[in-house]
Amino acid sequence: MSDKTAGIAVAVLTAAGSGTRLGARGPKALVEVGGESLLHRAARGLLASGVIDHITITAPGAEIDRFTAEVVDLAGEGAVVVVAGSPDSRQASVALGLDAALKARPEAEVVLVHDAARALTPPDLIRRIVAAVRAGHDAVVPGLPVVDTVKEVTDAGERVERVVGTPDRARLRAIQTPQGFARATLEAAHQLGALRAADETHAARDDAALVEAMGGRVVVVAGDPLALKVTTPLDLALADVLARREGIRS
Length: 250
Ligand SMILES: Nc1ccn([C@@H]2O[C@H](COP(=O)(O)OP(=O)(O)OP(=O)(O)O)[C@@H](O)[C@H]2O)c(=O)n1
Ligand SMILES: C[C@](O)(CO)[C@H](O)COP(=O)(O)O
Fold this sequence. Notes:
By secondary structure, this protein is α/β, with parallel strands linked by helices. Helices cover about 30% and strands about 20% of the residues. It has a single domain, classed as Spore Coat Polysaccharide Biosynthesis Protein SpsA, Chain A (Alpha-Beta Complex). Helix 5 crosses helix 6. Cytidine-5'-triphosphate binds near residues 17, 86 and 93. It catalyses: 2-C-methyl-D-erythritol 4-phosphate + CTP + H(+) = 4-CDP-2-C-methyl-D-erythritol + diphosphate.
């Protein structure tokens, strides 16, 4: 449990995606790495950090019972609940999860938004994010330096894809989750950006982008390569190897 004098911290754990790019038969969050589902491992990691008091998981609408059963061993004293996310966009799922989490813990002051797909995220990273919010930053994201050169190209749909720019790599960061927010900041950001959530094309790519859109200040703390997002079969193979390695379990 977190330090109550510093206010309650809750997490929205997004797991309602369809996992199209992974191409698994069932929901991606139930796919296993090292013999444990992404969902269970991600939720366990949040609780193992010792700084999260409650987790609301967003599940595909038809999978609430199965997802609830998957985390039943972690769910003592209302610490973990499962609600329906949205098939429309990740942003819409987070909005539903945020609403449910704040109903479960109305006194929450810090909110983390985390992807179940980043199941190997070390508890240390979770603690760094919460600490930075508690230190007074309204929006905090973990980021890693970019190793490839990134090019901006013309819109998809043109006959030949053409390069229009090469941003300075030294100023780019690959952004991960969990992303941490002062509760009022995240609520305001989702309220202001709500119209974008109806489809993934217009939706914000992450929650920090909603804060940026309302002119808020987002700070970056050091991310961790282990917080990789399981998106493709290659990511899954890597995550499985890492999860089986001794010492990686939190
Ligand atoms: N409508 C959605 C879409 C995504 N997510 C969650 O957001 C996280 C990041 O999404 P991603 O890993 O890209 O998962 P999918 O959307 O499932 O993948 P894809 O785009 O390949 O279908 C995941 O934990 C996913 O379950 C969600 O809760 N609701
Ligand atoms: C939120 C996120 O994990 C930050 O990197 C990412 O934007 C989610 O990506 P998605 O593929 O659009 O779900």
